[in-house]
Amino acid sequence: MPALALLLAAATAGCGSSGDSDGGSGDGRGPEKARITVGTMPVADTAPLEMAMRKGFFKAEGLTVRTTTLSGGAESVSRLRAGALDISFGNYVSYFLAHANKAIDVRIVADAFQSAPRTHAVLVKKDSPVKTLKDLEDKRIGVNTKRNISALLVKKAGKAEGAAFDDDKNFAEVDMPNMETALKSGSVDAVQAVEPFVSAIEKSGTGRVVADLGKPPTAGFPIAGYAATASFAEENPKTVAAFQRAMARAQKQAANRSTVVEALPDYTKITADQAAQLHLGGYPVALDPARLRRVVELMREFGYLKREIDVEPLLVRTGP
To answer: What is the value of pTM for the model shown?
Structure first.
């Protein structure tokens, strides 16, 4: 098994929890549902969620959080719809697409992550002749889920280089922890990875970055957030507000790079030395409809959405 898979296999199969309460508050002032299940992924984007669990931020709000590790946005949507998750981390493209297709009546309850240089990248084998995205036009690129943020970032960056990619012909689904294996075996010609996978693939000698998707035209792009169904948000407003307060506290602390670096080895299984070398993006504290409209605009540009989506009604902003 490659080094990357060894480092991260345990994280993708596991789950964690914080706190020890089962039911809602008996006095009506606490959360309606005190024990919630939250979907997550072993990526740098979710460091604040892990911090909130380990530092007792959820417990301070009367919440017990149990996490379930997911493979991507599509699984997040299906599990939210089935009621297997109360709240889930996921990319905005998957959430907005599912909402537009009426697969789920989604509500975004917290922001999670925005890109920065080398947080999202396209990598090829170290000895590959590929030099640019244009060279990948007739190749297969591994993404964790088709028609999500991964493919969209590649399409936008490729367009700037005069390259065009087809969702069905050019993209193949590969779980993040298996991207090094896929690249090494040649089952794909490139992968669109995120941290900590970008750094791990580079350091293992398997691959090299051919396109940094954290730079223009997709610099500072809103990547992911935490979502619930509209029914859960409406029926459990105090639970959602408690989750938001705990996450806002953690997102603020994540502005200090050292807090994220400290948290990463606990849930990604990478070493402290490796964590210190990762490229990190931004952890927005508040939901901003203007920022999230960038996602909708890019989805419209590449035909992911046939009609405009009004972002504002999808955001749950309950205040302090």
So the answer is: 0.86
pLDDT > 90 in the chain, percent: 79
Which pLDDT does position 25 carry in this prediction?
52
Centre a 10 Å sphere on the Cβ of residue 256 and count the other Cβ atoms it contains: 10
Q: What number of CA atoms fall less than 13 Å from residue 45's CA on the CB side? A: 29
For 27, other C-beta atoms within 10 Å of its C-beta total 6
181, 212, 243 — which closes off a domain? 212
- The mean pLDDT of 122-147, rounded to a whole number, is 95
Q: Which CATH number do you get for residue 204? A: 3.40.190.10
Is the distance from CB of 189 to CB of 139 less than 8 angstroms? yes
Tell me the mean pLDDT in the region 107-117: 97
Strand order in the sheet with 190-194: 171-173, 141-143, 190-194, 120-125, 207-212
DSSP conformation class of 263: H
Q: CA separation (Å) from 283 to 18, 121, 159, 164, 221? A: 21, 18, 27, 31, 12
**Residue 303 region by backbone torsions, left for phi larger than 0, else alpha for psi between -120 and 50, else beta:** left
C-alpha span between 242 and 84 (Å, rounded): 20
- Determine the structural domain holding residue 30 and report its residue range: 3-115+221-314
